[in-house]
Amino acid sequence: MASHRVFHGVVRTLALGLVIAGTAGAQDTAAAAAERPVSSGVFSQQQATRGEGTYQTSCQSCHAKTEYTGDKFKVAWVSKSAFDIFDVIRSQMPEDNPGSLERQQYIDVVAYIFSLNAYPAGGAELPADDEGLKKVKIDSPPGSLDVASRAPANGFLHPRVTFRK
After folding, report:
1. CA distance 51 to 71
2. 3-state DSSP call for residue 138?
3. Contact residues for 55 (Cβ-Cβ < 8 A; gap 6+)
4. 50 pLDDT exceeds 60?
5. Least confident of 17-21, 58-62, 100-104
6. pTM of the model
7. Residues 14, 58: Cα–Cα separation, whole Å
8. Residues 109/51, Cβ–Cβ less than 8 Å
9. How far is CA 153 from CA 137, 156, 157, in A?
10. Which residues of 65-82 are buried (b: 16+ CB within 10 A; e: fewer)?
């Protein structure tokens, strides 16, 4: 009789362990599913248009579009998150007054940069919060080759904002 109780106790413990493990696995899957590549359409066309307006008034006097497109963009940003590019721009720009634009203006400029790199617009805008931006992963732009092999040996390349001479 005692061995029967021990057996049922072990079975209950194992069942509870499986339930807990299953729940944790489901949460991991849900978190991973929440991540989206830029190529899936993570910004709206209206957002990119607003970003272009901000770029024209606050950025283009110092920055050429070519600084944020093509191979320069891919080497600097592919495999990072939308938050990474947002954070660099927000903390360094405009050069004479970093962080002086509204948060949404910086996010809109990120959407514009994505549009310059031929990422498709979608039905929703980029998230306005840090956690949401961190879940948007920058993948290779449509029609381009993967640039992971060009990354430095330490796997980290921190882009430096450059200016026209």
Report:
1. 21
2. coil
3. 63, 109, 112
4. yes
5. 17-21
6. 0.71
7. 61
8. yes
9. 21, 8, 10
10. eebbeeeebbebbbbbbb
- Residues 138, 37: Cα–Cα separation, whole Å: 6
Give the integer Cα–Cα distance in Å for 113 and 139. 13
Query: What per-residue confidence (pLDDT) applies to 154?
Result: 43
For residue 57, pLDDT beyond 90: yes
What is the C-alpha to C-alpha distance for residues 109 and 100, in angstroms, rounded to an integer? 14
In the prediction, which pLDDT does 80 show? Answer: 98
Strands (E), the chain: 36-37, 136-137
pLDDT of residue 156: 43
**Phi/psi of residue 151, each to 5°?**
-65, 150
Q: What confidence score (pLDDT) does residue 18 get?
A: 42
* SS3 (DSSP) at 136: strand
**Both tokens assigned to 4:** 């029967």
Please say whether the dihedral angle defined by the alpha carbons of residues 59, 60, 65 and 67, taken in this order, is positive or negative.
Answer: negative
**What is the secondary structure of 83-123 as a DSSP string?**
HHHHHHHHHH-STTSTT-S-HHHHHHHHHHHHHHTTPPPBS
Long-range contacts of 129-134 (CB under 8 A, 24+ apart): 130/83, 133/81, 133/82, 133/83, 133/86, 133/107, 134/81, 134/82, 134/83
